[in-house]
Structures
1.
Amino acid sequence: MYRMSQKVAIERVQVRGAIPYLGTNTTEDGQQVPLYSSNPDIVMRWLCDGWRCRYNQLRSRRQKWDKTRQALIPLGDEPDMRADKQARAECSWLAAIPAMILQSPNRIENTDWWSANKRRKTLRKQHRNPGMMPRFKSRRDDLYFVCWHNRGMNANWRQFNKHHGEIIITGQNPKPVNLAGQPCRYRIHIRVRVSQPIRDYTSIGVNWTRKTVVFINEPLPIARERTNRMVGLDRGVAHTLATSDGGFIDLPKARLARIDREIRRRQKAQARRVKLSGEPVNEYRRHASRAYRRTQAQIAGLYAKAHRIIDDWQHKTTTALVRAYDLIAIENLNLQGMTRRANIKPDPNHAGRFLPNGQAAKRGLNHSLRAAALGGIASKLEYKTQAAAHSRLILVNPAYTSRTCSKCGHCAKENRESQAVFQCQQCHTRMNADVNAAINILNRGVDHVLGLDEAERAITTQDARTVQHGESAIVARGTSTRP
């Protein structure tokens, strides 16, 4: 998904002009029969399949390391070295695909591959799991294609009224296969519903499975005025955000809890179906019942709904924070490390056995941390503060912010009376523990602004998905020089 983009919903698609040539089909007697269709669904699926085919042709040229042979070998069995023109001539299903669609996989595949290389290199330096290199696009993935706009060459936008408009994609049938008496050019009109004016864009991404279109463009800066206010934010599970002003900003937990209960209920039903079949899960899924597939689709829909709720809340909350405060300080958390599994503890007295390591409790905490999606708050704050005027985001060292008294600076484990209560053992200050941490975070952010700590600009690789993956976030390396 693109951060700098506008997403709209597809209402309907119409094909006008020539009937698009989809390729040839081999009959039982070996004859090649040309295929044509003006059915919108068939045409859109043809564009998606053609884009995926060309992407995989380009991906087959990449190489991977074979540990057995100790050498680089191609990803595909036979690397496809054909250029776009040759691919059109030899692959009939690509012959009539618009040039702006057929050319887009060249850049996208190259960007995907080298971004993954840089990301893996960065994550290895951070002693984190580098993940896998990108592979071929699967037929099971969403039906998707990208079309370059290229300053009006294709994928042109036309506004009808406040809430409706259309994207026009043009293409051309090759002359040898064009139907007699028909024009060679065809137009695909994708009518969409919009909620705001469409800004200048460089390309569009069409997801035919989800019936959405994404315009790739720059985000609008947040309109704001200088407020001379500062805030520290403590991210957590009990309260999604605690502010140094003493307030709390929480996710709509009641709605998310209802969705989670529905997901768990359906997952239990799925487990019962697999158990009654007497087969392993992977074997059962290959020929699952209609009820199983229907329930699985419902589970996926519920997960997507929860994700949309969280994303909507994060966007609205971060926008409000950027408008209200000139300086925002948050913790530079290592969320991946926080959600890591607990280390195993072998039993020294019994070989092959293990001691309790708290993994059961850690599992619940990990689930809550992932459900809160705390990393999304930092990433959204970063690019919004960068786009807004007179706004700044500082990432501070989170060490001991929950144990240090925000009044006198006394740091001790005993200060944390419980999860919610902070009681200083020296000055006897008593307040909510999350609010106390938020005040400490703000103090460290102010120390950075005043130059009282050892701070430097975060220099990170653009595609390394860390909490400061851009250049707008300032990382305060030290804690504080305050007494």
2.
Amino acid sequence: MPEAAQVLDFVAPVGRENLAGRVYDELRAALFEGRMRPGQRLKIRDLAAAMQVSETPVREAVVQLARERALRLEAARSITVAGLSLEQYLELRTIRLELEGLAAEAAALRIAPGDLGALDRANTALAEAEEAGDATAANRANWAFHHTLYAAAAMPELLSIIESIWLRNGPMHTFLYPDARPTYPGRHRHLDIIDGLRARDPRATRAALCADLMEGGANLVALLGRMERDAAWNTPA
């Protein structure tokens, strides 16, 4: 008998209009929000069942995400979520500081009141999720905060580049809770970002965003270092 499809809870059913695009967008959201973990094995059949679609649009989306280096196709039916080495994570962080810092500066000059409200709500949701120990909700709220900020820059080409990096960076956030929860020497840097935006101060907004990336990710950098050292120690000579 054929193996039963595995029930997946990190993707949702999609509508029928523009089916291929909706499947792709749902998988991208799962990656952005850290709903998939690095190294996780996926099956097209399981994804199709979870999204209540045929396998064809799922296969097309998986191939596209493999081209974008978010997924790995190691064989005809072997699909895994790509991870990052510590070296890769640090290199991408260096790039993110420049690109996301630029977006933060631009957003400070163009932010609309509705965007400020959305940022407040996302940050409140993040704080509540962390307090409740809900890692899934925390990662979703964090992505909502950052994506709202970068979209407010009104620079669609820049946003597209940032999203391409977050496709690979998002799954790494599954390591944040509980082992590498972001910590800060003072208050949460998201509050400083919002203050910079309200003041229409590009320099302050960029500085707060860069501090968020450096301070908020410090525990993850340390964890990745320990994981790589442990892997090297346990590898036979």
